[in-house]
Amino acid sequence: MRTALRTSIVTAALAGALLAPAATAVAATAAPQPAASTRAAASADSSGSSDDSGRYEGRPVYVGNGMVAVLRNGAEGPEAWIRYVGDQWKPGDNYMLHVVGLVTRGQTTAEAYGASFELTKAETTAPVLVVTTKGVAKSYPLPEGKAGPVCSAEKSQNIGAGMSAKLFMSPDGPRAELWVAGEDTAWRLLDRGFPALPESAGIIARIVNPSGAAPGFEWKTQGGGTPLGRTSFPALPKGCKPNYKVTEDRAADKPAPKPEPTVTVGAAPVADVKPQGGAQTVVVPKGGVAAGAEFAAEDTDNSTTVAAGTGLVAIFAGLSVALLARGRRAGRGRG
Fold it and tell me: How far apart are CA 77 and CA 274, in angstroms?
């Protein structure tokens, strides 16, 4: 009965292990995805290059299409934080809402909600933000500050499935904007603080070696046997240096570890059972079964029946010897 009980437990664990990936896939498919503008704003607010902590103060100007540009020119250099505030905003209202774009000396252009933004004269003491909507350009002078070089470079890359990536390189590091054709705002933003899309995004897009001297960009937007696309980020202009410690990370280039040898029970692979001293038990923490339960080694596969039969034979043999010896002693006693 004990063996039968353990066998039923193993069967249940195998069934659970087989059903778990399907359940996980269904849950991932059913999970609601954040809106593009919400995700882009969250990335901008949480990234190292777009840390918005303490940067709410500035000169806000309404630039149309429900957006405010918060103009600054302090120790960080000229900045224009583009925030979505809605169509009813007026001077004096709160402007600390979602970030949808940012222009600096390191990244002088941005787009959001049908408007393009460019920081002109960025290397001078009097930079100007130019906002273009439907072919009409308006200028918004920033506060005066210190002059400095423009250390930025950018390129565009078609990544398939109606999507493109805008790749920027600045002293803050690599930054990638993922755009869907026909959309007014970037679908996702990647940078050193958030270098790769999660699996739930449905495509592969990631910055490789984000803190290295030569970061790259990889993507895969189509299924089947489509290989990964790869390209490099543009180099910083001569004389410009990153404002972070350059560290090479080649983990993605290392070969994957060889899989452990497995034995098959039914349709699910189970890690090999290694001999142990003393009372033998086996824990299955990974592979097709990860139930976390311990079973006696002889109960983990088809050797259960063989071991049980061998044990019964040994027991009957022992009983036969004992009974024979007892009969002989009894015979001598009567004689």
Answer: 63
CB 302 within 8 A of CB 308: no
CA angle 36, 37, 38 (to 5 degrees): 90
Tokens 């500050």 locate to: 145
Helix H or strand E segment including 4: helix 2-30
CB atoms inside a 10 Å sphere around CB 177: 24
Report the alpha-carbon distance of residue 129 to residue 69 in Å, rounded: 9
Q: How many CA atoms lie less than 13 Å away from 33 in the CB half-sphere?
A: 14
Tokens of 146: 């210190």
Q: Are 52 and 45 in contact (CB under 8 A)?
A: yes
Amino acid at 76: E
Let me know if 325 is exposed, middle or buried by CB neighbors in 10 A (0-12, 13-18, 19+).
exposed
Contacts of residue 300, Cβ cutoff 8 Å, sequence gap at least 6:
10, 265, 270, 273, 282
- Report the candidate in 159, 147, 129, 154 with the shortest Cα–Cα distance to residue 64: 129
User: 269 vs 250, which has greater pLDDT?
Assistant: 250
pLDDT tens profile 308-325: 455 554 555 555 555 555
Kindly state the tokens that stand for 218: 């990889």
> What integer best gives the mean pLDDT of the chain?
73
Q: Taking a C-beta distance cutoff of 8 angstroms, is the pair 113, 84 a contact?
A: yes
What digits encode the pLDDT tens for the residues 132-169? 999 999 999 999 999 988 888 999 999 999 999 999 99
Half-sphere exposure of 234 (CA within 13 A, CB side): 22
All residues at 6 or more sequence positions from 164 whose CB lies less than 8 Å from its CB, including other chains: 156, 157, 158, 178, 179, 181
